[in-house]
Amino acid sequence: MRCSSCKGQSFHLSDVALTNDRGYLRDDLDFDEVIFYSVPTSFFVIDERIPSEIRELITEAEGCLKMNHLTGASACARKAIYELTVKEKCEGDDYESKIKFLKKQFPQIDPELIDVLAHIQDMTSDKVHEQSWPKWDSKNLKLILETLKVILHEIYVLPDERKKRSKNVQKLKEDLVKDKAQIKVAGES
């Protein structure tokens, strides 16, 4: 759905059509009554160059967090971090070692950002199933999720953007060389 005010895209589930034939919100509905699930446009949209299994887990974690389902949000965040370590073939015998491996594998990323990911382990499986844990609040999870998105952007998006910029510069250089060659040929005739 496209917002008539900001023109941003958002996702809403409803039993009735929410938009008119031009794609804008209908004026004759009380949306709070007909929408049963809503995902508004996000400030930090997860780029599609980030692996889908990680993107989906982050989206689920953010959905749980919006509903204040901290256990679900924590589990999804932890699984997303685990999937990152698998995808990047991180070495190590345990979770913490694999996260530390990310520092070696991606030295361009601020190591303090990667350290934040290790805090998801503060809520371990044993604590969920057998013990209580110190109160985890949404601020902790939001920090981990936003940090994870920054790290994923650094790993999967920025290198591709650098390649594209380099190709553009190379093309400009090639065009310049061609132009000089054409001027030289034209000057000789």
What does this structure look like?
The chain is mainly alpha-helical and 189 residues long. It has one domain. The chain has seven helices and two strands; from the N terminus they run E-H-E-H-H-H-H-H-H. Strands 1-2 form a two-stranded antiparallel sheet. Helix 3 packs parallel to helix 7. The chain starts with 10 loop residues before the first strand and ends with a helix. Mean pLDDT is 80; it is low at 124-131.
Main β-sheet: number of strands, strand sense, barrel status? 2 strands, antiparallel
Question: How widely separated are the two ends?
Answer: 61 Å
Number of domains: 1
- Helical percent range? 55-70%
Strand percent estimate:
under 5%
Please tally the helical runs, counting DSSP H or I stretches of 4 or more residues: 7
| H-E order | EHEHHHHHH
Report Rg: 24 Å
Low-confidence stretches: 124-131
Number-wise, the strands total 2
Mean model confidence by pLDDT: 80
Overall SS class? mainly alpha
Tell me, briefly, the overall form: flat
Strand order of the largest sheet: 1-2
What is the element layout, followed by pairings?
Layout: E1 11-14, H1 31-34, E2 35-39, H2 52-66, H3 70-87, H4 95-105, H5 111-118, H6 125-129, H7 138-188
Antiparallel strand pairs: 1-2
